[in-house]
Amino acid sequence: MKIINHLSFRFLLVFCAILFGGINLSFAQVNLPSVNPDRIVLNLTVDPTTSVAVTWRTDTTVQSSVCELQPASTSRLNKEETKSFSALTTKVKHAYDKEPTITVNQHSVVLKGLKPGAKYVYRVGVENHWSEWFQFQTSEDSKRDFSFIYFGDPQLDLKSQWSRVVRAAYQYEPNCRFMLYAGDIINRAGRDIEWYEWFAAGSYIFATVPQIMTPGNHDYNDLVPGLHWNTQFTQPTNGPADLDGTCFFIDYPNLRLISIDSASGSELEDENGYELTVQKAWLDSVLRTNTKEWVVVTTHLPFYSTKDTRDNPQLRKHFQPILEKYKVDLVLTGHDHSYGRGRASDNLNSKPPIVYVVSVSGPKLYPTGTKSWMEFKGGNLELFQKISISQNGLTYQSVTPNGELFDEFRLQRKKDGAKKFIEMNPLVPKQK
Ligand SMILES: [Fe+2]
């Protein structure tokens, strides 16, 4: 009897070990940092012809980290060609509701002194804990053709569903020079597990193709961007004071790309508020001094909504006259979770009207509304956009994750510099 009891006790011990070991495994925290670098991401800088920003994270035992850089060659890597850049390291603590607090070291480097239009390889880490080598290309300094990808809100189910969209976009245009986001990258600002999902979705693409993003309301928390925004990314800081990494411009090289932060100041509701007044003055100055042939503006809130129950008249009232004065070409937005694009103005005398787009890339989808500004629209559709810029034209394509063309138009540049809108979508009647 004693022997049977002894065996039963041992069996119970083994059973518990398997059971609780299994439970521990199934609850393993997937977003914990380690000594090995992860969440490696490139960001565009103010001067993408000669520089690019790299950001990554480790656990807090790694108190200094470096980025190694080499010109891309056609042969194996050559140690003698390596340049080493020391990172700026910041300890960051992410706490969200009752979820486990995540403490990390964020490492950031701006690689400077690069050659325009050149390919490089880089890796990040410390001895015995290196990332793989990633390859990227700087912007040419002359007027060369290039393409970029634009995403509306990813926001939800980033790993399980949005992953398909970002991978399809990269497959559709593997030579895209950067990926642009019109806000609401995740759903709850400050929630580290959602950023884990975003990085899982993009993986090496984010370390290869520079990412650039304007914030949405879901990227803000209590009137400030979530802590990840300016620690996990290294975005330009050439906008107004206190809007670092959210309001900025980049020249790439014949395009001026401008981010207006429409998530700040409680979505710019206060007409006399700092965020609205300072961005208006700044926008006017960066457009007045612009020498680039193409101007694209991105902001989260739509100037014209796709949803019948939504409207943002304050955005049009304050920013549209400035955009029209300087003949901005294209405005890329998100927030409404359906698709619409059209030429529109609150000023009937404005010619040519600016092209406005609302789009969504993640699986939070709504039907589209009935507003008449939309020349083409779609509901319950995940989309990405490929925008190609050449010396004489801008071609816009909206594409499904299946790789099917959904919408298309072109802005043709005439000899006198004026732009002509050309409808390329056979489903849209040619009117204006
Ligand atoms: Fe939003």
What labels would you give this structure?
alpha+beta; seven-stranded mixed β-sheet; 432 residues; Purple Acid Phosphatase, chain A, domain 2; Immunoglobulin-like; 8 helices; binds fe (ii) ion; 2 domains
CATH superfamily of the largest domain: Metallo-dependent phosphatases
CATH topology of the largest domain: Purple Acid Phosphatase, chain A, domain 2
Based on the structure given, which CATH architecture of the largest domain is correct? 4-Layer Sandwich
N/C terminus separation: 95 Å
The counted number of beta strands is 25
Count of alpha and pi helical runs: 8
Radius of gyration: 24 Å
Average pLDDT, to the nearest integer?
Answer: 93
| Biggest sheet architecture | 7 strands, mixed
**Structural class label:** alpha+beta
Please mark out the parts with pLDDT under 50 across 5 or more consecutive residues, or reply none.
Answer: 16-26
Structural notes for this entry:
The protein is an alpha+beta fold and 432 residues long. The chain folds into two domains: 38-137, Immunoglobulin-like (Sandwich), CATH 2.60.40.380; 146-423, Metallo-dependent phosphatases (Purple Acid Phosphatase, chain A, domain 2, 4-Layer Sandwich), CATH 3.60.21. The chain has eight helices and 25 strands. The chain has helices spanning 2-26, 158-172, 192-202, 204-208, 227-231, 264-268, 274-288, 313-325; strands at 38-43, 52-58, 66-71, 83-86, 88-94, 102-111, 119-126, 129-130, 134-137, 146-151, 179-181, 211-213, 220-221, 224-225, 248-251, 255-259, 294-298, 330-333, 339-344, 354-358, 376-378, 384-389, 393-399, 405-413, 419-423. The strands form five sheets. It has a seven-stranded mixed beta sheet with strand order 12-11-10-22-23-24-25, covered by helices on one side. Strand 22 (384-389) and strand 23 (393-399) form a beta hairpin. Helix 2 packs parallel to helix 3 and helix 7 runs parallel beside helix 8. The termini are far apart. The chain binds fe (ii) ion.
